[in-house]
Please model this.
Amino acid sequence: MPDASPAIMPTYGRLPVTFSKGEGAVLYDTNDRAYLDGVSGIAVTNLGHQYPRVTQAVAEQASRLIHTSNLFHIGLQEAVAEQLRAATGMENMFFCNSGAEANEAAIKLARRYGDQKGIASPQIIVLDGAFHGRTLGALSATGNKKIRQGFGPLLEGFQRVAPDDLPAIEALAAERQDIVAVLGPRQCWSTSRRRRATVASTSNGRSSMAAMTRSRPSFSAARVTCSCQARTTTL
Ligand SMILES: Cc1ncc(COP(=O)(O)O)c(C=O)c1O
Model:
C-alpha cells in the first residue's frame, strides 16, 4: 500500500491499512477483510462500531442541530454534566475535544490554584516517560524527549520523577512549597517494555487483529472525565 497522500501532514507513522466500516468490535478494511479492533480509536469508540443507541443519538442530533456554542445554554450538555457529577462525585465538568485539551485544562487549573495561594511559579509533578498530549502545554509536560524535541521553547514549571516511584513524588511534594499538582499520565512508556502497534494475521489469514498495547494500560485516560482528572490531580 502506498504512503498516505502528501496532502496529509506526516505527523504520524500510519499502518498500511484503511478501514471502511466497523460492527461492534470488528473492523473491515477496504478489501472487506475483518479485524478485531483492539485499539478503539485510542480508547474513543469504547462502545464499539455502529452501537445502535449511539448511531441513533448522533443521527437524531445531526438532523436537528449540529452546533451552537458555549455562548449559550446547552441543555443536553448540562444533563450529561449532571449525570457525570452524580457518577463521579466531582463538583463540575469541563467539556473538551481531546485528551490534550483535558490536560491543558488540568495544567491551567493547577496554575490558577497556585496563583490563588500566592505561589509565583507553581510546579507540577509529571512522570518520566509519560505521554500527556501534543499541544504545547501538554507537550511540555510529556516525559518523552523524542516527542518534545524540536518544539522549544516549551513551558516551564514541570518537575519530573521516575514512573512508579510514589515515595519520590511524596518526598518532592513535602520538600517543595511550590508543588501544586501531580499530573496523571494518559499513558506511560518505559523503553524496555514499550510495545508497538501491530497488525497480526491469524493462521487462515481471514481475520486479523489490530492491537496497540501499552506498557501500563491502567494509565490510559478517560476522555469525558477531563475535569475530574484536573480535580483529582490538584493537591
Ligand atoms: C500516543 C498518543 N498520541 C495521540 C493521542 C491522541 O490524543 P488527543 O486526544 O489529544 O488527540 C493519544 C491518546 O491517548 C495517544 O495516547
